[in-house]
Amino acid sequence: MTAALSAGTREAFTALLTEDVHWGGEHGGNECTSRDQAGDHYAGLLAAGITLQLAELQQTAPTGEAEQLTVRLQIQSPDRDDFPPQMTIRLTLRDGLIADIRELDQPATIEVLYFDGCPNLEAFLPHLTALLAEHHIAAPVTLIRIQNDEHAQTHHFLGSPTVRINGQDVDPAAERQVHVTRDAASRYGMQCRLYSTPDGTAGTPPDEWIIEALIDNPAHDAAVNAIHSGDLSVLQRLLTEHPRLASIRLHRHGGRTLLHVATDWPGHFPNVAATITALVAAGADPNTGVLGEHPETPLHWAASSDDVAAIDALLDNGADINAPGAVIAGGTPMADATAFGQWHAARRLLERGADTNLFAAAALGLVAEVQQHLNTSQPTAEDITSSFWGACHGGHKVSSDGATDIRDQQVDAPEVLGSRIDETLDVARSGHVGLQAEDVGVGQVEVRRGLGEGFGVASADPDPGALGRQAGRDRPSDAAGTPGDERDPTVQMKIH
């Protein structure tokens, strides 16, 4: 394991795993159920600059045929807010390979960030102590005094008092408050903090936020399980017993709403249409975005999982078909569907009236729409190059004489993408957006391995199962180009 982690490659890591390895799923995080999925997830961590090092390993007595190891990992991440510096996991071995990777719960850390003279801190600290005692939570409270503006920037200080549990702000909207601001640093400073709560504005976080961040809520977990199993009777009972359940964010499940739970990767949960309808009837907003830099709605997630039943149910219940916020350049659900090769979803969105840009039109083989975008939107050479990628990604061949083969159907399309070939080749030859070009004959160019900044390799017949919501979460890039399937580095895009 030490050697595999030091090697820092997908291949070295997956060599340690069984074919049916299970990894993750704790607190609503990514869940992998195969060697390929685990390898993709690990590759995504590496691509984001996150490295793991073995700090300590303890062997436990074998249980039946399974042997277990307790492992403490050191984690290095470009953003210290993304991961804790250390994590303890339990490995279950089978036939000498890792069959299960499970994050173990750590003792809670509670931090209160403040500045001297904060008018709300004096009353809040004894209240917090009493709240913890009431719920039998034996966790120390660490006070962090913010001394000046520079200190505030370093600690991402949103105001006094700020409460963090295990490094995460207890306010579900805290991350969104930062990312919706163009200059995130302007959010930090020596300032009093105001919290928008269900009961109005307050100078301290509500008790329920603190407790939910510290203690598993049985109703939340039961609702998640009911959604994943398609048990509508249990879900309806929980929604009746807990009237706010449909609309709140679940702290222990990554701040997701239940609609996001219903559309999360891999999607296609039993009775998903009826589940979505029940959640919206109980108060869920189908246009609520997930927390983070990319406020994707449940429709984005359904599109990324190629879940047509969920897409129809969301649209029937008021979802915005062109909502922005996708992990792909902040675009619409169509952007996610086409970039991740979720063609059933993309075509259903098109049938339901979704807008298309040049890339989506090319990926779907919509020749007339491609022509319209070229005539009206003044695309850059980079836009055209990206759209050539999209056409190949969708299985459509585009040539410089304007003949476009949409799968097996010949369509005569003079002056479509091929008519702008000179601009495209200029981009390719210059290495723009990570493409490298090589002249292979008069009037021909072969574009090889578009593996530049935010630009991946696409298979002509992409695997929807590998490029869905999992890929959207794990892949860090959101460049205007599209991500690809790094598992097949031999795929080439040829423009003739």
From TrEMBL:
It comes from the Bacteria. Keywords: ANK repeat, Repeat. InterPro entries: Ankyrin_rpt, Ankyrin_rpt-contain_sf, Multifunctional_regulatory, NTF2-like_dom_sf. Residues 454-496 are annotated as: Disordered. Pfam families: Ank_2. ANK repeats lie at residues 294-326, 329-361. This is Ankyrin repeat-containing protein.
